[in-house]
Specification:
The chain has 104 residues and is mainly α. 78% of the residues lie in helices and 10% in strands.
């Protein structure tokens, strides 16, 4: 199955193989998953620790669980922002190179 995309120049039609689209869609999901794991795993661990503390002390304050998660999220963003930005810029450059190769 091939997708036909109208090119902006000269009115040409570019035939895009569906395997290219599926490969790039899969890579997009992997990159998004890597970025989300960096943020979600620490939040889950912090939430678990706070839940254990709340169960042990019978404290049911809502802000007690929110504030540590927020601080953990900010710490993860500060620590991993460079790596996430590098991953996204590299992936974006690769996507643009794939688009450029399809146009040839």
């Amino acid at each position: 199955m091939a997708w036909h995309l109208g090119a902006a120049r000269r009115g040409n039609v570019i035939s895009v193989d569906s395997s290219i689209l599926l490969d790039e869609a899969g890579r997009t999901l992997v990159v998004g998953g890597l970025i989300m794991v960096v943020l979600l795993v620490p939040m889950a661990i912090i939430g678990l620790i706070i839940s254990i503390i709340q169960a042990a002390t019978s404290i049911s304050e809502q802000t007690l669980s929110f504030v540590p998660k927020l601080l953990g999220l900010l710490a993860c963003l500060v620590i991993f922002a460079g790596a996430m930005a590098e991953l996204l810029t590299g992936f974006t450059a690769e996507i643009f190179s794939v688009i450029a190769r399809m146009g040839r």
